[in-house]
Design brief:
The chain has 15 helices and 19 strands. The protein has 482 residues and is an alpha/beta fold. Strands 1, 2, 10, 11, 12, 13 and 19 form a seven-stranded mixed beta sheet that branches. The longest helix has 22 residues.
């Protein structure tokens, strides 16, 4: 077997890589270990109701946003139906003091809401939001009209989010809010996240947040349809078990777990980076590369409980509600953003999310012990019951019936996500970073662990990987003009 470009993984990042390469004349093969493509992106049904394992909403879906621009470039925009969220707040934050802070779309409405809820922080809020807007305006991808690879100077700063907010006079209450909200979007605390990385992650959500009709499947299926039209090949239920490299670190191809060998000029891997050590020959990369992989720490692993709600409260319709505790890492959220039944107020599917409780996590991944299904199921049931109880406590007039529960074990088993980590590896200020290019000529990295987390960050990583194969001057101007 032979392919010009092999993409390992059929998630959003893998499909985007494949589509841009195929549109520019490359023969592309996408290899997915799961039986169904885009396992983390695609919806599943329980009792006739649609549940989304990975997609709830996204930034970058406004007309001039990166994702909308890419969809037009790929001629897939007509099939992807973007829908607005609750105009009064796509996210609603309940702080430890019980006050509620709605986050509406747009920097001007957001500033007004923050000033109303943090009146002593008006100057700090102005400085914080101005900085965030400036970073988005002066960074390519966040501003598709800029040249490829232009980045704001603010991104070079090693100042943490916490240090920056203190420097502009922010109160402890506002610092906890900004740090906790950022943690829900990228999984690192305010002391360990640079102000630039924080603004780059949360800024697009401040600017504009929307969802897609049909949820993750409403995004995945049009991309899969377009891949087929462009002549791309999709192989599911088959895993890449090793990458073949010659003695000069030139890529030869990939070995599949069905015993076949696929020769390839280029390979883009979108798998969790800590899985690479099992795929790459020992001497194919520098020792420091494998040392870096072993020392990465992962972002939190979630517990997600899907419930069918009756009498859904207005603030949950087309929105995500977060309850923050005193500790940044201790939060609880419920999302009704995906419009599986968008117009209904009678019944809606909610995804209740929280960091996985320690007892359940140990049952998912028992150290040096065998996995015990009975223990796992017991802890899973207890954690789901606790999550539903917390929901009913917060919204006593709304009743939720359990549909399904996903644990870190579920995510690792079905999607290959390392221990079910929500956003891949942590991006700390002084930690090592990954780049698309590796020491193996023809082998590149993409996925949310490479640049930034989420759908938008994954798109940026994919575009950078594509630029290693096809110079960006051949295709980026066409993207920017779309």
């Amino acid at each position: 077997m032979r392919s010009g470009c092999v993409i390992i993984g059929s998630g959003f990042g893998g499909l985007l890589c494949a589509l841009v390469l195929a549109k520019n004349g490359k023969k592309v093969t996408v290899i997915e270990q799961c039986k169904h493509p885009a396992p983390l992106l695609s919806s599943f049904t329980r009792n006739g109701w649609s549940c989304d394992p990975g997609f709830h909403y996204s930034a970058g879906l406004e007309p001039d946003g990166l994702l909308s621009t890419l969809f037009r470039y790929l001629e897939a925009g007509r099939e992807i139906d973007i829908e607005p969220l609750n105009p009064n707040g796509h996210d609603v934050i309940k702080l430890p003091d019980r006050s509620r802070v709605p986050l509406p779309n747009g920097f001007a409405p957001l500033r007004k809401s923050l000033e109303e809820n943090f009146p002593a922080d008006r100057n700090a809020i102005a400085a914080y939001l101005n900085k965030t807007e400036r970073i988005l305006r002066t960074t390519s991808f966040m501003n598709p009209k800029l040249g490829f690879g232009e980045f704001s100077e603010d991104l070079n700063s090693m100042e943490s989010l916490e240090e920056y907010l203190i420097s502009v006079g922010a109160s402890e209450r506002f610092r906890k809010f900004a740090g906790a909200y950022g943690y829900t979007l990228y999984g690192t605390t305010s002391e360990e996240t640079s102000i630039g990385a924080h603004c780059l992650a949360v800024g697009p959500f401040y600017k504009h947040t929307a969802t897609i009709k049909g949820g993750g499947s409403g995004l995945a299926q049009p991309l899969l349809n377009k891949l087929s039209k462009l002549g791309g090949e999709l192989i599911t239920g088959c895993a890449v078990c090793s990458v073949s490299v010659d003695e000069n670190r030139n890529l030869k191809g990939v070995e599949l777990d069905n015993g076949e060998f696929m020769e390839a000029a280029n390979v883009v891997s979108t798998v969790h980076p800590q899985l690479l050590e099992n795929l790459l020959p020992e001497k194919s990369e520098r020792p420091i590369f494998f040392h870096k992989l072993r020392n990465f720490t992962n972002t939190f692993s979630p517990l997600v409980v899907y419930a069918l709600l009756k009498n859904c409260p207005p603030e949950l319709q087309g929105a995500t509600f977060y309850r923050f505790q005193e500790r940044t890492t201790d939060f609880w959220g419920v999302s009704c953003a995906v419009p599986s039944d968008y117009k209904s107020t009678e019944q809606r599917v909610a995804a209740i999310l929280r960091p996985c409780p320690e007892a359940l996590f140990k049952a998912c991944f028992p150290n040096d012990k065998a996995f015990v299904p009975e223990v796992y199921e017991a802890e899973k049931s207890a954690a789901a019951a606790d999550a539903l109880a917390e929901f009913h406590k917060c919204f006593p007039g709304c009743r939720g019936t359990l549909l399904e529960t996903l644990t870190p074990h579920s995510y690792q088993r079905y999607t290959g996500t390392m221990r079910g980590s929500m956003f891949g590896v942590e991006r700390k200020i002084f930690s090592s970073v990954l780049t698309p290019r590796t020491a193996i000529r023809g082998f590149y990295l993409a996925g949310q662990s490479v640049k930034s987390p989420g759908i938008l960050g994954t798109a940026v990583a994919s575009l950078n990987a594509v630029a290693e194969i096809i110079p960006h001057g051949h295709w980026w101007p066409k993207v920017a003009d779309s």
